[in-house]
Design a protein that fits this description.
Helix content is 42%, strand content 14%. It is an alpha/beta fold. It folds into 2 domains: 137 residues, 3-Layer(aba) Sandwich (Rossmann fold), CATH 3.40.50.2000; 160 residues, Glycogen Phosphorylase B (Rossmann fold). It has a 6-stranded parallel beta sheet with strand order 7-6-5-8-9-10, with helices on both faces. This is Glycosyltransferase family 4 protein.
Length: 315
């Protein structure tokens, strides 16, 4: 998105760098943003609702503001305490427009009292020139993985809300499948057919996805499930919980398998089904790649988002 704007000669002010300390991050974010107000700004975009602590600084400005929700963390935020709820209301009321990554998130915001007319769902897109089919054998060599194994990949944070413990239990029921976990977080107790690789760099993630036979996202809660789109863009089929925006991606059996959340039995059956159906995996992967190219390519979605920016600043 930033690159697209800069190509259109739109100057982008990046107001913050991440800090390991949440307090320092919040403080620096606010200070940096206040300083940026002194610059020649046409429009503001705030990512993630917890960072709406910048909103009080924006109350003095009449410049357009876009809020963007990437996941359902922003929906949990208002319920933590009364202060958060007040800040949430202030943020969404101050915003000229709100972007959600899925229709499901839009519905959730409407249920929280946000006006439907000011919300536009625009999914997080995929760079299909990066996430693309590659030679599976070469990709497996990059991670020293068995070229003959059936590999089930989980890519994301090692966190209970991501259904990690459900997947570990399903692994116990599928001993002939190799389970690869790529993502940051503490390693839980697991059977011998599970392997935790730790955090995977963005450059290596497409390679790891292409090394897999299928990807699983057994989340209990999810905004959209960008990892599903990235996997499908690589031609790798997916299994996902029927939560959040996941059913917007997996619309039928040709694009993947949807399972009930927190259901180890169905999760295990879906894994076994893909394990035993090589031709189906290949067919679903090819269909998934075509689906992402048509509906979730970065360039197409960035144009849609940029049109909202330009409309708000009357360009």
């Amino acid at each position: 998105m930033v690159d697209s704007l800069e190509e259109k000669n739109v100057k982008v002010i990046k107001a913050v760098k991440k800090s390991a300390s949440p307090f320092a991050y919040s403080t620096f974010y606010l200070d940096s943003f206040v300083n940026s107000l002194k610059k020649d700004v046409d429009i503001f975009q705030a990512e993630y609702i917890p960072h709406s602590s910048i909103i009080p600084a924006l109350m003095k400005s009449k410049k357009p503001l876009i809020l963007k929700f990437h996941g359902d963390d922003g929906l949990i935020y208002p319920y933590k305490n009364h202060f958060n709820r007040a800040l949430f209301n202030l943020s969404v009321n101050r915003a000229d427009h709100i972007i959600t990554c899925s229709e499901a998130l839009k519905t959730s915001l409407i249920n929280l009292g946000v006006e439907s007319e000011k919300i536009t769902p625009i999914a997080n897109g995929v760079d299909t020139s990066v996430f693309k089919p590659m030679n599976k054998e070469h990709c497996r060599e990059s991670f020293s993985l068995d070229k003959n194994a059936t590999i089930c990949l989980y890519a994301g944070r090692i966190h209970p809300m991501k259904g990690i413990f459900d997947l570990i239990e399903a692994a116990k029921l599928n001993p002939d499948v190799t389970f690869i976990f790529g993502g940051p977080g503490p390693v839980p107790k697991h059977p011998s057919n599970c392997f935790f690789l730790g955090d995977i760099s963005p450059e290596k993630m497409p390679i790891l996805m292409n090394a897999a036979d299928f990807l699983v996202l057994p989340s209990h809660s999810e905004g959209l499930g960008l990892v599903l789109l990235e996997s499908l863009a690589c031609g790798v089929p997916v299994i996902a919980s029927n939560v959040g925006g996941c059913p917007e991606i997996i619309t039928n059996k040709d694009s993947g398998i949807l399972i009930p959340p927190k259901n180890i039995k169905y999760l295990s059956k879906a894994i076994k089904y893909y394990d035993e159906n090589f031709n189906l995996r290949n067919k679903t992967g090819k269909t998934g790649r075509e689906y992402v190219l048509e509906n979730y390519d970065n360039e197409k979605l960035n144009k849609k988002l940029m049109s909202i920016h330009l409309k708000l600043i009357n360009l």
